[in-house]
């Protein structure tokens, strides 16, 4: 995903190198700039790495009305197992990343002959069960700067339509609700079945501001607006 243009004018008392050489700011200047400031100044020459540039962009719009379609005769619900999780990756403008997981998911998919059918597919996320590598980060993600878990303990993705685009490949559209706000989100997904186990995987990015997650970071810890989501869902036939 292209970065927004930044217009910065620098006057440096050094000659520019020949065109075949990548220009570098003087070492003395680097020592007096915070990493995020250096990254912004260097944008004239080198773009800071944003991992979301290497993932599919979700299409986000207004939440859609859902008319439940349980699929054709013979379709069955498959419920998510404890192995299911959703991973998220946030990044700073200086290129560093933070990864976390939601590990307590409930919900189901409707499948017939190894393929999702209808639109009776939904996953609910217990927002209080977040894992990261840092306890301080985990606590911060739960407060009002991010997910505001005390006021919004559950998020969900409720499919409104799903379209086959290739062998095991689908385009999934559904309402993603976080912090009490719902938007329609469309992204590519892969669905496979082996015996009594079905897997649903997807990797895409979206902009957190669209769910009122507006915390920008402080100082050298300025945050990008894009967040990558990795769906890793395992389902088995629902027990009667």
Describe the fold and architecture:
The protein is mainly beta. The chain folds into two domains: 1-48, no CATH class; 52-237, Lipocalin (Beta Barrel), CATH 2.40.128. It has helices at 27-31, 35-41, 135-142, and strands at residues 56-57, 59-62, 76-80, 85-91, 97-102, 105-112, 115-116, 122-126, 130-131, 154-166, 169-178, 181-194, 197-207, 226-237. It has an eight-stranded antiparallel β-barrel. A hairpin with a 2-residue loop joins β11 and β12 (181-194). The longest helix is centred in the middle third of the chain and has 8 residues, at 135-142. It is globular and about 55 Å long. The model is unreliable at 1-47 (pLDDT under 50).
CATH class of the largest domain: Mainly Beta
Q: Briefly note the structural class of the backbone.
A: mainly beta
- CATH architectural group of the largest domain: Beta Barrel
- Widest β-sheet, arrangement of strands: 3-6-8-10-11-12-13-14
Might you state the CATH topology name of the largest domain?
A: Lipocalin
- Alpha-carbon Rg, integer: 22 Å
The CATH superfamily label of the largest domain reads Lipid/polyisoprenoid-binding, YceI-like
Helix share, percent: under 10%
Q: What string, H for helix and E for strand, traces the elements in order?
A: HHEEEEEEEEEHEEEEE
How many domains make up the 3D coordinates? 2
Strand content: 35-45%
| Count of discrete alpha- or pi-helical segments spanning 4 or more residues | 3
Model regions low in confidence, pLDDT < 50 over at least 5 residues: 1-47
Number of strands: 14
Could you tell me the mean pLDDT?
86
Sheet of most strands: 8 strands, antiparallel, barrel
Give the termini distance in whole angstroms: 45 Å
Shape: globular
